[in-house]
Design brief:
Order of helices and strands: HHHHHEHHEHEHEHEEEHHEEHEEH
Shape: globular
CATH superfamily of the largest domain: Type I PLP-dependent aspartate aminotransferase-like (Major domain)
Protein name: Pyridoxal-dependent decarboxylase
Number of domains: 2
Low-confidence stretches: 455-464
InterPro entries: Aromatic_deC (IPR010977), PyrdxlP-dep_de-COase (IPR002129), PyrdxlP-dep_Trfase (IPR015424), PyrdxlP-dep_Trfase_major (IPR015421), PyrdxlP-dep_Trfase_small (IPR015422)
Family: Belongs to the group II decarboxylase family.
Bound molecules: pyridoxal-5'-phosphate
CATH class of the largest domain: Alpha Beta
Largest sheet: 7 strands, mixed
Helix content: 25-40%
CATH architecture of the largest domain: 3-Layer(aba) Sandwich
CATH topology of the largest domain: Aspartate Aminotransferase, domain 2
Pfam families: Pyridoxal_deC
Distance between the termini: 67 Å
Strand content: 5-15%
Cofactor: pyridoxal 5'-phosphate
Length: 464
């Protein structure tokens, strides 16, 4: 016997089949006209319409505005696609429609998070008894982690920030790497520390924090300190030297070390890349995305905090109808009611296994290195390609115009940035399905569009 929603699910599946099958060949991110998209979506009817028809029409209306960001030749931002098993698990999440906030609302959602969280800690080499909150992204994970930091630092200084706020609190020195992520500054802003209050610690040419500079900044700072380090700079992939940073921070009383490892922390899952994040386990909190490199669907990230009580206190909600405890996932997240994010993470980890996660990380890094090699000689690869990011300059070429031409061409999609004052293309490999052929085809196309002549063997030596 089938459920009353089978017709609707069939419509969704028709769309999903068609869309996913088209990913390897469709133009990746051709510009769309928002006005046309709006018009195709129609008006609010007085009387409702049949559901399956609504879904088929919706699929047709959306299609021109969809970006193949889950496909193999999307190299923009640090995006990642969706492993088939994670996609299917996410459909199960929606079908079950569990509220993962409170264990009594879904014992299954709470326990699957506990299990998947433990596995993630194992893969990431983090303390096995740390608290794990399933957040919507590294952004909210950063906020949750830094809220725990704020609690612990001020509690140790005799101030109850949850009750009394920041007014009258002892000042906390906040130190952030010069190439730290914008969402860390946003978190500091939201937590009342103020983005401008953060002291930016000088970084090397790759954007990795300089531990000596950190030590000097710490020497100059009395009182509690919050240090925000990073694993995986969003342009270069550089990881702060976490072991050296931990040496400096751990020598200090009432200091908290946070690591924004949105994508870079996954290096820990690969025996060949693990050294890049050595020392990460010595921090106090970590933000790491699952929807980027682990390739689960949006939205999914982990907020990991060593001091379980600090996170629980910072996230606590109290009401007579809502007696919360350790068993309740909402004691570890900003979000209260939310979907069961642990399910697709569990499915991805169980299907990949330790080896599969390591292979995924290694494959993306190897492909990034291959892209860099292919760019070299025609364009200027700016970064040390240690992880999955390639940063490319095209002297004499309008980079924004080139990115537009690449988007319109449709073979692939790449982002832009400004690094060290110079515009550059960002080529980020984080999709499970990207192949060598995808990388070669894309790099050659970008080079051809840049006028730096692709890829006849003869053209190599002649490019500037
Ligand atoms: C992507 C990213 C973030 C923000 O993550 P979201 O998943 O978009 O919330 C934070 N820090 C770094 C280093 C990132 O790469």
């Amino acid at each position: 016997m089938s459920s009353p929603v089978i017709e609707e699910l069939d419509a969704a599946r028709r769309f999903a089949d068609r869309w996913l099958a088209s990913l390897p060949t469709r133009p990746v991110g051709v510009p769309a006209d928002p006005a046309a998209l709006r018009a195709a979506l129609g008006d609010l009817p007085d009387d409702g319409l049949p559901a399956a028809g609504v879904l088929d029409d919706l699929a047709a209306a959306l299609e021109p505005g969809l970006v193949a960001s889950g496909g193999p030749r999307y190299f923009g931002f640090v995006t990642g696609g969706t492993l088939p098993v994670a996609l299917a698990a996410d459909w199960m999440v929606t079908a079950a429609d569990q509220d993962a906030a409170v264990a009594v609302m879904s014992p299954a959602a709470a326990v699957v998070e506990e299990v998947a969280g433990r596995w993630a800690l194992d893969l990431l080499g983090l303390p096995t008894d740390a608290a794990v909150g399933f957040a919507t992204g590294a952004q909210t994970a950063n906020i949750a982690c830094l809220a725990a930091a704020r609690h612990a630092l001020l509690a140790a200084a005799g101030h109850d920030v949850e009750a009394d706020g920041l007014a009258g609190a002892p000042p906390v020195t906040v130190l952030v790497g010069a190439a730290g992520h914008a969402t860390v500054l946003q978190a500091l802003r939201l937590l009342g520390f103020g983005a401008r209050h953060a002291v930016r610690v000088p970084a090397d040419a790759q954007g990795a924090m300089l531990p000596d500079a950190l030590a000097a900044a710490l020497d100059a700072a009395p009182g509690p300190v919050l240090v925000c380090a990073q694993a995986g700079q969003v342009n270069t992939g550089a990881c702060d030297p976490l072991d050296a940073i931990a040496d400096v921070v751990r020598a200090r009383e009432n200091a908290w070390l946070h690591v924004d490892g949105a994508f870079g922390l996954w290096a820990a899952a690969s025996p060949t890349r693990r050294h890049l994040v050595a020392g990460a386990d010595r921090a106090d909190s970590w933000a790491v995305d699952a929807h980027k490199w682990l390739n689960v669907p949006y939205d999914s990230a982990l907020a990991v905090v060593r001091d379980r009580a600090a996170l629980a206190t910072a996230m606590s909600v109290s009401a007579p109808y809502l007696p919360l405890g350790e068993q309740d996932p909402s004691t570890r997240t900003l979000e209260n009611s939310r979907r069961a994010r642990g399910v697709p993470v569990y499915a991805a980890l169980r299907t990949l296994g330790r080896q599969g996660v390591a292979d995924l990380v290694d494959r993306c890094c190897d492909l990034a290195a291959r892209a860099a090699e292919r760019f070299a000689g025609h364009a200027e690869v700016v970064n040390d390609v240690v992880l999955n990011q390639v940063l490319v300059r095209f002297p004499g070429v309008d980079v924004a115009g080139l990115a537009r031409a690449v988007a319109e061409d449709g073979t692939c999609w790449v982002g832009t940035t400004v690094w060290d004052g110079v515009p550059a293309l960002r080529f980020s490999v984080s999709n499970w399905s990207t192949t060598t052929a995808d990388v070669d085809l894309s790099v050659d196309r970008i080079l051809a569009l840049s006028g730096r002549g692709a890829a006849g063997p003869g053209s190599r030596g002649t490019a500037r």
